[in-house]
Amino acid sequence: MPLLNPELAFPITLAGGTPYRQTMYLKNVIDHPRMEIGDFSYFSHSAPAEETADILAPYLYPFSREKLTIGKFVQIARGAFFITSSANHAMGGLTTYPFRVFNPDTIGGYDDLPFKDTVVGHDIWIGHNATIMPGVTIGHGAIVAAASVVTHDVPPYAIVGGNPARLIRMRYPDEVIAELLQTAWWDWPLDKVEANLAALECGDIKALRGAR
Ligand SMILES: CC(C)(COP(=O)(O)OP(=O)(O)OC[C@H]1O[C@@H](n2cnc3c(N)ncnc32)[C@H](O)[C@@H]1OP(=O)(O)O)[C@@H](O)C(=O)NCCC(=O)NCCS
């Protein structure tokens, strides 16, 4: 039996065969016109699965102009969430109170506010209670430390932490990062990923070079 099945909503099965319903493959529990999610990316929370989009990106509305894109093999811990562009109030006036939202005739009246997509690459670990602010791009292989507030783009294979999140360290030297990005193992067929798990887990780029 393959280790991973991209079609499952609840991919962890406990001893005894019960699915663990608090960890979900996002792609299979979210149907949102402004979200795009890749295979095997998961998130954990204790609410019913149908509330997942709301918990993960509470200000991303079906009519929002920005998009939230999450790649493959992304690991999102409990309490982490995305604040997207639609969360922003107009700041150019003398008040930030969104008066026009309260009248159906004028609710669309903030459509001229600037917006930016949020993009999460592949194989990224987002720690417990992390907050990702509007318009951020997180590079492949990055780690966002627990309770961070990410306000700027995160380079591939960086570890960032704190509020505002700053670079803690790079995970590998530049040449290894370049090779990992070139290898793009997340785009391999699943049987190739599974056949090379030991190489992926060992931390030595040389082991990946012989991957078949
Ligand atoms: C970032 C993390 C991965 C540790 O990485 P690491 O390289 O082993 O980091 P270290 O513990 O050696 O700490 C390195 C530095 O990062 C800082 N740091 C660690 N975690 C941090 C955090 N959450 N926020 C801010 N800074 C943090 C440390 O204080 C240390 O700073 P210093 O060099 O000034 O002393 C870990 O702290 C973390 O946040 N893991 C996420 C756990 C989680 O949320 N799990 C949820 C279930 S999946």
TrEMBL record:
Q: Which domain of life is it from?
A: Bacteria
Q: Tell me what organism the protein belongs to.
A: Ciceribacter naphthalenivorans
Q: Which InterPro entries match?
A: Hexapep, Hexapep_transf_CS, Trans_hexapeptide_repeat, Trimer_LpxA-like_sf
GO MF annotations, alphabetized: acyltransferase activity
Q: Which Pfam families match?
A: Hexapep
Q: Which protein, by its recorded name, is this?
A: Acetyltransferase
Residue intervals passing through the bilayer: none
The family assignment reads: Belongs to the transferase hexapeptide repeat family.
Going by the UniProt record, its keywords in alphabetical order are: Acyltransferase, Repeat, Transferase
